[in-house]
Amino acid sequence: MWACGSSSTFLASALGIRRIRTQGRSAVYTLEASITDCHDSESSGPRKVVVVGTGWAGLGAAHHLCKQGFEVTVIGGHGGSSVSSEDSIFDRFDASLIHAFRQPSRNIFTLCNELEIQPFTNLMTSAVYSSESLEVKFPIFQNVPRLPSPLGTFVYPEFLNLSFFDRLTLLPLISAVIDFDNTDRAWRKYDSLTARELFRQVGCSEKLYRAVINPMIQVGLFALGEQCSAAALLGMMYYFMLAHQQDFDVVWCSGSIGEKIFRPWMAFMEEKGCQFLKSRRITDFSLNEETGKISELICGDETFLVDAIVFAVGVTELQHVIAASTLLQSRKEFLDVYNLRAVDVIAVRLWFDRKVKILRAGNIYSGVDDSAGWAFFDLNSLHEEYKDEAGSVIEANIYHANQFLHLQDEQVVAKVRSVLSSCIEGVEGAAVVKHLVLRCPETATLFFPGSYKFMMRGSTSFPNLFMAGDCIVNRHGSWSQEKAYVTGLEAANNVVDHLGEGEFAKIIAVEEDEPHIEALRSLNRNVNDIRSQVPLFDYLI
Asked: What does DSSP say about strands 134-138 and 126-129: parallel, antiparallel, or unpaired?
């Protein structure tokens, strides 16, 4: 639906002077003549903000905005899960699946302190298995002497089947790590390469890549190395394991993220006046053509008056919104979203009739299939509710699971049990007494080569529509749920800036590069600047 700015629903307002930038920035004053609709919040109450999405990004934006006194309504997306429940307001991928929280997740840890909750386990070790044997055991890096980055990542893990020479072939990757500084230049340079091509260029051994690197790519980026962008790989690896030795250390949520974090988080916001609405299908928007701003968000027969909107949904859900809106289809930045893709994820939880011995709480598995990535978790160690369970409770997450998505539950359970039997002693003789299969179709962002140029930024061509999520381009340097949460805070700051009310959210920056890395990056930037002055430097690909 399109609404003309000259229609009877809009009234002319007086000229006004508004301060639009505060706190840490120079104050900028704008004299504007505008046509606003009759629900102008300056005269009728708090400004109205609608946040679409209930994952880390959406809740992050709503959390800060409701603390600033805005009238915030959060609309849950359709989620991408085949399991429905009373809790469908939660983003199922973010709230129900098991996700690692690495040590750099400082904004999320700060949030939990603010909420006065303690949802995390102690630091735990992890491992990588192949179909043949246990391949790698990772220590708790904080418990060993700290080495200059990234040496600790190479030295301290116990590689059971790899020679010293195999491990040594990974060291040349440091040249790409130095060159990739998370700038637009770096992303455009490396986004044209696949992750596998990058490792081939630096001379990584086939055995190291097959046994360790590719399985970690499949779990971290949800697809094979030849399907993933080298830029995304470098961003993920640097944030999770290469920037600082202790970054690879991991804690887990001691129950479902939905129950341990999202539920008390939402209760906190409801006390601030935030309203949560279950799944709504967005059908279009109304545009004030005089201001170029969106004035209404339309969900079938429901209409929400808005001063600002934050979209914080995944790629697939955003594509559905665009498909329903002729207004969004009129802008290239939204049409580009159709070039993006997401992959299927399945979570399978198995209850056994007896305890089996699992060496590590969190594990990566490779060798089952050429396209799917696998991880499995000992829930008796991770989740408080299963600590006293008579038998083992194990969850397996399958990423890029398109070939398993349409199988019957019993077929999926049989496949998972077969995988677990190959690396956990005792599983083959144990009986599954209960199971739960959660299907999340097209929910995990696929960072394929060439995807960067199609990804949206935090601001859009609509002055009051802002974006958040792990598929949004930003320069914070974080990854996964920490990045999603940070983009939510950035979107909230964009709303504060646009409406000229409230305080900016404080976003904790990632830890600075270690001195030797910063020195090498500075030298690399200088070299690149010199090279760019050479005639015909950009002539060849």
From this structure: antiparallel
**Nearest alpha-carbon partner for 316 in 280, 342, 283:** 342
- pLDDT > 90 in the chain, percent: 81
Q: Which helix (H) or strand (E) holds 36?
A: strand 35-37
- CATH number assigned to the domain comprising residue 29: 3.50.50.60
Beta bridge partners of 346: 398, 439
Please tell me the distance from the alpha carbon of residue 167 to that of residue 489, in angstroms, as a whole number.
39
At 133-164, the pLDDT tens digits run: 899 999 999 999 999 999 998 899 999 999 99
Residue with tokens 């007086």: 14
Q: Which structure tokens are listed for 536?
A: 């015909």
**How far apart, in whole angstroms, are the C-alpha atoms of residue 489 and residue 458?**
11
Domain for residue 151, yes or no?
yes
Last residue of a domain, one of 251, 270, 286: 251
Predicted pLDDT at 539: 64
Residue pair 110/312 in contact (Cβ under 8 Å)? The answer is no
pLDDT at 479 exceeding the cut of 80: yes
Other C-beta atoms lying within 10 Å of the C-beta of residue 418: 12
Instruction: Supply the range of the domain harboring residue 304.
Output: 10-82+257-331+460-499
Q: Establish if 533 belongs to a structural domain.
A: no
Contacts of 26 (CB under 8 A, 6+ apart): none
Q: Is 41 a residue whose pLDDT tops 50?
A: no
Strands 308-311 and 465-467: parallel
Residue 536 and residue 168 in contact, taking contact as beta carbons nearer than 8 Å: no
Please say which residue of 195, 220, 251 terminates a domain.
Answer: 251
- Which CATH number goes with the domain that contains 427? 3.90.660.10
326 and 345 share a domain?
no
Give residue 147's pLDDT. Answer: 95
Q: What is the average pLDDT value for the chain, to the nearest integer?
A: 88
Pairing of β 126-129 and β 362-365: parallel
507-532: burial string, b at 16+ Cβ within 10 Å, e else: bbebeebbeebeebbeeeeeeeeeee
Q: Which residue has the higher pLDDT, 214 or 531?
A: 214
Listing DSSP states for 350-387 in one string gives EEESS----S-SEEEE-SS-SS-EEEEEEHHHH-GGGT
- Count of structural domains, the chain: 3
**Distance between CA atoms of 454 and 45, rounded to whole angstroms?**
38
Asked if 97 and 345 touch (Cβ cutoff 8 Å), the reply is yes
Residue 325 sits in the same domain as residue 474: yes
E runs forming strands in 61-139: 71-75, 100-102, 126-129, 134-138
Residue 80's CB: how many other CB atoms inside 10 A?
22
Is the pTM of the predicted complex or chain greater than 0.85?
Answer: yes
The pLDDT value given to residue 12: 31
